[in-house]
Fold this protein.
Amino acid sequence: MNWNLNDLYKGFDDTYQKDLDTFAQKLDAYKALVKNDDHLSDLALLEAYLRFQEETETLVHNLYAFASLTSATDVTNQEALSYMAKLQKLFSSVTKENVLMTRFIKDLDLKALAKESALVNQYLYVLTLEQKSASHLLSEAEEVLYSKMRQIASSQWQQLQGVLTANLNVQMGDQTITLSEVRNLAYDNSQQVRKQAYEAELKSYEPIADAVSMSLSNIKREVVEMNQLRGYESALEKTLESSHMEKKTLDAMIEAMMSYRPHFANYLKEKAAYLGHENGLPFYDLFAPIGKLSKSYTFEEAQTTVLDAFYGFSSRLGDFAKRAFDNHWIDAFPKKGKRGGAFCSNQPQIKQSRFLLNFTGSLSDVSTLAHELGHGYHGDVISNEAPLNWSYPMPLAETASIFCETIVMNKLYAGLNTDEERLSVLEISLQGDTQVIIDILSRYMFENKLFEHAGMPISKDQMKSFMLDAQKQAYQDGLDENNLHPYMWLNKGHYYSAGLNYYNFPYAFGLLFGKGLYALYEQNPEAFLKNYDNLLALTGKASVEDAAKSMGIDVTDKAFWMTSLEAVKKDIDKVIDLMHKTK
């Protein structure tokens, strides 16, 4: 079950090299365009700039995706890493021109030009965002210098974390396994195995903790320094701007999440008692399966489960997932050198996606498969949009994925016959909700703490302390404070991108927004289906708030988030009731 990348390239062959050369030539033409020796009018120059962006979008997608996807399944592939570095160098070679164009756009009357040009009108939202970003630019020379230095600074620190964790050997009894494999044992049916895996995982981090903490510390220090130079008050301000999202939306959501912590703590304490623990739930039992659905899924069974649920929602969603399975878009199983976790890489230029999983057969893995295919469906919808509208912000990126998870889990739940089966499936769904609401809160708190201290080097011991404090605040007394996870910062790749800070709250947004959408779907499926794809298409050309309004939702209102959290609370109450019935 390895993915097939042939629709991108068949290797780093002559075709790949020819496209790389073509991209370099287009960049040279772009440099000449920006000089504007032909004295083009403002409108003509702007249209030429947009056409250049459109032409290179497909080429860049193909080139970078093939290298990065090749690297994702083999982090030691030096050829892939070499081409990624070449592409980064090419990108940085036009930093000066990008700065000059952004400054040029800053002074244009975009609304007036949009009335004269269908091309400008098509990209009015994207151009408005670029105009807004101009106030945070450094000088041309400084931007060029930073683009070059970043390649040997934060980009390399990020790569170091990826290599160290992907190649980490974990000693589990008399077996040596990968980090992905040992973390997946958190879902094992045996408490002894779960505890042993937890202890083995924590021990395995010790030899690399200093290097990885130095990586994270230096990345965040770079972010702070650059944000100060650019005039941002904080990394969060920049993230919200990049997310096309207002601070009052985030505040409303976080406040609602904080107020529901006691309900999650109560669920975790009940689960602890169900499993025989007295002082809250130890971290190693956070994902312990309960009830009597101990089934392990083959990948073929997971496919059937997902397809049945997706076709029950819409033929377009089902057909998309079937194409993904039939055409080998998925790299399914863990292996040494493959990066951990799961992701979807949308390739709208070829109307496809690629999905990386580390599938071991748990129901949670089935849910993850549905989640990532939801990202792919989002990509399928936006592939019909104009190329510069393919990109969408992080909070809305989780909309389709969470929705697809919900479809699959609800389908499974509806087909169950006994309380013990219902408990198992509903509690696994609640595990996911707890991660995306409560654990995300801990990650958000942890990252806030990192940035508070990022003016100085941060040691591994400080990071462990920050993480433990964040887990105690978020989970309250739901977890056993003597069995937490001090290294949760080390294995989460989302912390290690200088360009994507606070890659945590968007998941909570996606879950709660998705639950709000699902409530609308249940009220009127026919009307919902007419508007849903339009919402996904809007994500690349509207703010978070405006996209939500298209479905009649006000995300700046705390009441919306409370309503979604109340739906989660109903599941908490059901799970607690089922635990009492079946114990």
